[in-house]
Design goal:
The protein is of the alpha/beta class. It folds into 2 domains: about 1-280, Ribonuclease Inhibitor (Leucine-rich repeat, LRR (right-handed beta-alpha superhelix)), CATH 3.80.10.10; about 290-335, no CATH class. The protein contains 7 helices and 10 strands. It has helices spanning about 1-10, 65-70, 140, 255-260, 260-280, 285-290, 330-335, and strands spanning about 30-35, 50-55, 80, 100-105, 125, 150, 170-175, 195, 220, 240-245. The chain has a 10-stranded parallel β-sheet, with no helix packed on it. Helix 2 (about 65-70) links the parallel strand 2 and strand 3 (about 80). It is elongated. The N and C termini lie far apart (about 115 Å). About 30% of the residues are buried. It holds the Pfam family LRR_1. This is Putative plant intracellular Ras-group-related LRR protein 6. InterPro entries: Leu-rich_rpt, Leu-rich_rpt_typical-subtyp, LRR_dom_sf, LRR_domain-containing. Keywords: Leucine-rich repeat, Repeat.
């Protein structure tokens, strides 16, 4: 009896009010708070689970959540189960079509159910401090409304390629993992403002060029990794206000540039990128090579010097390529015979 009274005292139920509601919306939407009660199993609720809009089960000792219970939370918008002993989430979590905020941090989760992709209104996913080794492969294709993805302090080796399709994402926190690399096409994250990939320690050694194409990026933390070179494209991050690179064996930009601050780093990377652009060898057209080696003017063609490419040292007319009677301007005879034609 005392236990039931304690539960009743902890239950915080508030009525949601609003105008122009449909008959279904006029039902009482309630907040249930069962946090910090050392629960090992969930009590059988006396109210209709379909009327709950926020369920807080955090700071308990729950090892599982019944499939049947989750499936009936049809109107839940916020589900908080952080700081429990959960080893898995129920597959029926995919039934939560109105879910916008999910906090499962501080558990023992090794994976997220694939059905989480059905929660297409989800805007915030917090799965910090678990044992996640991977995320669902197609998570980025389905959770198109996700604005914050926080999966720090896990065992992630890589992020699925579909992550780059989270075009509404604003915060991506993947620090304290085992990341070897990041997806190559990050430039699709056009709304990303904060990216934290710090403290992947000996695992993360390179960053993709596309990281400099994140047009909305304000904060970038790549500290305490094994990165030796920042992508030149960092110089393109016009909105960047905070850059953390300490704890890396950086060679480019050099330490003396980093010590001068963000503006100096951006300027250095921008100049390096432009310089590489200018110094890159230009492709020469085949016509240019013909002119260079005197094919258009046999009188100026050196016969005894070494030549580049596939130009043969001794030129001969290639009679098999043209009729002797055809003397048109672009006859192969004229193009490849050094002395018969186009002499001065």
């Amino acid at each position: 009896m005392m236990y039931e009274q304690q539960q009743q005292m902890k239950m915080d139920v508030k009525k949601k009010t609003g105008r122009n509601r449909t008959p279904i919306q006029e039902e009482r939407l309630e907040i249930m708070d069962l946090s910090g009660m050392s629960l090992e199993t969930l009590p059988n609720p006396s109210l209709n689970l379909g009327t709950i809009c926020k369920l807080d089960l955090s700071n308990n000792n729950l090892q599982s959540i019944p499939e049947s219970l989750t499936a009936r939370l049809l109107n839940v918008v916020v589900l908080d189960v952080h700081s429990n002993q959960l080893q898995s989430l129920p597959n029926s979590i995919g039934c939560l079509s109105k879910l916008k905020t999910l906090n499962v941090s501080g558990n023992l989760l090794q994976s997220l159910p694939k059905t989480i992709e059905n929660c297409r209104l989800l805007e915030e996913l917090n799965a910090n401090f678990n044992k996640l080794s991977r995320l669902p492969d197609t998570i980025g294709f389905e959770l198109v409304n996700l604005k914050k993805l926080s999966v720090n302090s896990n065992k992630l080796v890589f992020l699925p390629h579909s992550t780059s399709h989270l075009t509404n994402l604003r915060i991506l926190d993947v620090r304290l993992n085992c990341l070897r690399s990041l997806p190559e096409d990050l430039e699709n994250l056009i709304n990303l403002e904060v990216l934290n990939v710090s403290q992947n320690f000996q695992y993360l050694a390179t960053l993709p060029y596309s990281i400099g194409l994140l047009i909305s990026l304000v904060e970038l933390d790549v500290s305490y990794n094994k990165i030796t070179t920042l992508p030149d494209s960092i110089g393109c991050l016009k909105k960047l206000q905070k850059l953390c690179v300490e704890g890396n064996p950086l060679a480019s930009p050099p330490v003396e540039v980093v010590e001068q601050g963000l503006h100096a780093v951006k300027e250095y990377m921008s100049e390096k990128m432009n310089g590489a652009h200018k110094n890159s060898p230009k492709k020469k057209s085949w016509i240019g090579k013909l002119v260079k080696y005197g094919t258009f003017n046999g009188a100026n063609m050196p016969r005894d010097q070494d030549r580049e490419g596939f130009i043969m040292p001794n030129y001969r007319s290639i009679d098999g390529l043209a009729s002797p009677r055809y003397m048109g301007m672009f006859s192969p005879r004229r193009l490849f015979s050094p002395k018969t034609y186009f002499t001065r």
